[in-house]
Automatic annotation (TrEMBL):
Catalytic activity: 2 ATP + H(+) = P(1),P(4)-bis(5'-adenosyl) tetraphosphate + diphosphate
UniProt GO BP: mitochondrial glycyl-tRNA aminoacylation
GO molecular function, one term: ATP binding
Record's protein name: glycine--tRNA ligase
The species this protein was found in: Thermothielavioides terrestris (strain ATCC 38088 / NRRL 8126) (Thielavia terrestris)
Alphabetical list of CDD domains matching this protein: GlyRS_anticodon (cd00858)
Length: 457
């Protein structure tokens, strides 16, 4: 937690969250209800997080306030398979696992997620599923697949409660940078929240058949306990209720042998943290009951995306310049990420071209396709070039032939190739490209390649 203060006197401390996860865990019971009590399920949250970084540096890579997006996937600890695992099983990942790191090597082994889970390099299917989804997500954003690797946490860097943890690292001029963490946090968070709030954060499932359970049970004589411990009676009662089966078994033997047991408690009214419970107050016996439900605390698999770091690495990876011209830079953001999808340029300042450009802009807007018009006096080549640098993937030119036959050109940023067609055809092509139902190769194969008034050079 990042400690700060609030109010005019700065007397009241506040604690800024270092992750969104805990807020999700506090809502676990509600989330489980929304999911009709069925497992597995997931929650997700995105928001600002704060860390008291000693030396913030390197732009967006290490800052004190950053945007974090986290998924908490709740799973039965005995069933860590994932129904959609077959979708990612054959994805090949560069894995820098702990053994490789401990042997002093830095070259990852390239192996399919299926093989890595089978050989337990990755602890379980659900964790493997999310590593696959992380790489698919990063590549969809435009990250270069050859500049992604997954590094496993060593035992000494992994949170004590985690049973396996991998970082997706992206290669930048600063070296490999951790951008997404993916940890199996086991049952730690829900167990601790439950312990401190007293709220049960477990899942109850009907068993296919009732089973006979033998267990140790402790009972305090309430009247005698009240008389003996007065205000502390509740604390003592809670300490007894928290005892697990091995502890109860050991105490039963001690009680039998010595007629009394000593029990650790939270601080009592007199400041002590230990009570003596004689046989008259405490009884511990083995009981048998039929169990019809199974109760467990779910384990949590958590992919955690640092948005600023991903964005920084992406910008570095997709920024380049045209061969032999360092001044003509290009930001190859894919359509899914680019803030503006289409640049509309009237070829000249002829007053007849502008209304056509504006009508086309409105038509694209109605389709939900963000676009911008550049009707400035700069040459068309200059206007293309500056929008290439801003990352706008597509360009439509309205020219003098548009006035004659209604046709326009459509230009792709990275290749600078242009096609020509009616406005309807071009709008359909843009829609297909934005929605991902058509590729630029398909568009160039079915539409007429335009070599005319491009002025790209
Ligand atoms: N100071 C920070 N500035 C920007 N992003 C951060 C910062 N700290 C963490 N992140 C992002 O949050 C994600 C999840 O946080 P996590 O707790 O796993 O990071 P971490 O292991 O503490 O990071 P690091 O070891 O680099 O400090 C990281 O993968 C990263 O993208």
């Amino acid at each position: 937690m990042f400690k700060s203060t609030i109010g005019p006197s700065a007397a009241a401390p506040v604690y800024l969250r270092p992750e969104t996860a805990q807020g999700q865990f506090l809502d676990f019971k509600k989330l489980l209800d929304y999911n009709q009590g069925s497992m597995p399920f997931a929650s997700a949250s995105i928001g600002k997080c704060y860390r008291n970084e000693i030396s913030p540096r390197t732009g967006l890579l290490r800052v004190r306030e950053f945007l974090l997006a986290e998924i908490e996937h709740y799973v039965d600890p005995e069933k860590k398979q994932h129904p959609r695992f077959p979708e990612v099983r054959d994805i090949v990942l560069p894995l820098l696992d702990k053994e490789t790191q401990l042997s002093g090597k830095t070259v990852p082994q390239t192996i399919s997620i299926g093989q890595a889970v089978e050989s337990r390099i990755i602890d379980n299917e659900t964790l493997g599923y999310f590593l696959g989804r992380i790489v698919l997500f990063l590549v969809r954003l435009g990250v270069d697949r050859s500049k992604v690797r997954f590094r496993q946490h060593l035992a000494n860097e992994m949170a004590h409660y985690a049973c396996d943890c991998w970082d997706a690292e992206l290669l930048t001029s600063y070296g490999w940078v951790e951008c997404v963490g993916c940890a199996d946090r086991s049952a730690y968070d829900l167990t601790v929240h439950s312990r401190y709030t007293g709220a049960s954060l477990t899942v109850k499932e009907a068993l296919p058949e009732p089973v006979k359970v033998e267990e140790w049970q402790a009972a305090l004589d309430k009247k005698l306990t009240g008389l003996r411990f007065k205000k502390d009676a509740k604390v003592v009662q809670a300490a007894v209720e928290r005892l697990d089966q091995p502890a109860l078994e050991a105490l039963a033997a001690e009680l039998e042998q010595h007629g009394a047991v000593a029990l650790e408690t939270p601080a009592l009214a007199d400041g002590t943290t230990r009570v003596e419970l004689p046989k008259e107050l405490l009884s511990i016996s083995k009981t048998t009951r039929m169990q019809t439900t199974r109760e467990y605390t779910p384990n949590v698999i958590e992919p955690s995306f640092g948005i600023g770091r991903i964005l920084y690495c992406l910008l570095e990876q997709v920024y380049w310049h045209r061969p032999n011209d360092a001044a003509r830079a290009v930001l190859s953001l894919p359509l899914s990420v680019a803030p503006n999808k289409v640049l509309i340029v009237p070829l000249s300042s002829n007053p007849q071209l502008n209304p056509i450009a504006h009508a086309l802009s409105a038509r694209l807007r109605r389709l939900g396709i963000a676009n911008v018009i550049d009707a400035s006096s700069a040459s068309i080549g200059r206007r293309y070039a500056r929008n290439d640098e801003l990352g706008t993937p597509l360009g439509v030119t309205v020219d003098f032939d548009t006035l004659k036959d209604g046709s326009v050109t459509l230009r792709e940023r990275d290749s600078m190739v242009q096609v020509r067609g009616s406005e309807d055809e071009v709008v359909m092509a843009i829609k297909g490209l934005v929605e991902g139902t058509e590729t630029w190769e398909q568009v160039t194969a079915r539409m007429e390649i335009f070599g005319g008034q491009g002025e790209d050079q």
